[in-house]
Amino acid sequence: MSVMYSTIKVSIGSTVTLGLRNFNQNYPNPTVYLLTPGKCLRDCKYCSLAKSSNSDEKYLSRVVWPSFEIEDVIQKILKNKEKIKRVCIQTVNNRFSREIYTKILKEIGDRFKVSISINSENDKLIKELFSNGVDRVGIPIDVATEKNYEFLRGGDFFKKINFILKTGKTYEGRISTHIIVGLNETDFEILNLYKLLITNMINVGLFAFTPVKGSYLEKNPPPKIIRYRKIQIGTKLIELGYNIKDFKFKNNGELIGFPKFNLDEIIKLNPFNTRGCPDCNRPFYNERPTGVIYNYPFKIEYEQIEKEIVDLGLDKIFI
């Protein structure tokens, strides 16, 4: 048997949860994150596992993913059932992935809430995943505009969007996607896409672009924190029912004005925390613990959120 077929990668934080590694972790980690091994057949220019990338394969974004025997990981998951609220399987497009995630689902699919992120436009496969015990399926869009999608990710942007929307109607509340901020899109484009997805009951996770050594975009900068915070607040306002016309943008698509919002209401929505499936926190996926934190993986106090909003002046840029 190939080594690839017998192993699965585990995020470094999840190795602690499972007792595979031992070091201090000062935040809860209720979701176990797994990643199928190997390089991807696709060539997304922002990804460390793209087929043309020279990045170290132990990384995805800036997270280290050591490899372990699948059977060992399954047994650790079952043994730590009380601590685990969700298992998230992230798949790489290659010939190993399907056999690996199928094996894992067979063992844990009916015992845990399982999410799987998979780049597919195959109705039959999505149905099969749900039939095998998957709770939620993530179909990543990542890139928020047609032009950038074709260059950075490859494929048909609108075909992918339509598939996500169609699948979301079939499996209401069980389909998610991801948007990466910082891939040459505008604030208007992100919020407009976010509104479309949320209106159609698609769960959306926000990521900040993270340059990784060896990838095509390794020299591109991550988004500025003030921009990311504006988008985080803007998307929360959209979830509260606001429309794109309620915001103000420059001609270049930069967000410069919010509809006047209740600061307390926004803060209570935890706008700066990680978004995704229930219990997802993706610890330090986009950031170093000692640096700028884009998505907080743990609960932060009301006063800290308020201070960030006030310090950045985001409580004053109203239409």
Overall 3D geometry?
globular
| Estimated radius of gyration | 19 Å
Counted beta strands: 12
Order of strands across the biggest sheet? 5-1-2-6-7-8-9-10
Tally of discrete structural domains: 1
- Number of helical stretches of at least 4 residues: 11
CATH topology value? TIM Barrel
Outline the structure in words.
The protein has an eight-stranded mixed beta sheet. The mean pLDDT is 93. Strand 11 and strand 12 (255-257) form a beta hairpin. It has 319 residues and is α/β, with parallel strands linked by helices. The chain is built from eleven helices and twelve strands.
Quick structural overview:
With 319 residues, this protein is of the alpha/beta class.
Task: Write the SSE topology.
Layout: H1 3-6, E1 7-10, H2 12-17, E2 31-35, E3 59-60, E4 63-64, E5 67-69, H3 70-79, E6 86-90, H4 97-108, E7 114-117, H5 123-131, E8 136-138, H6 146-152, H7 157-170, E9 175-181, H8 187-199, E10 203-208, H9 225-239, E11 248-249, E12 255-257, H10 263-268, H11 302-311
Parallel strand pairs: 2-6, 6-7, 7-8, 8-9, 9-10
Antiparallel strand pairs: 1-2, 1-5, 3-4, 11-12
Helix pairs in contact: 3-4, 8-9
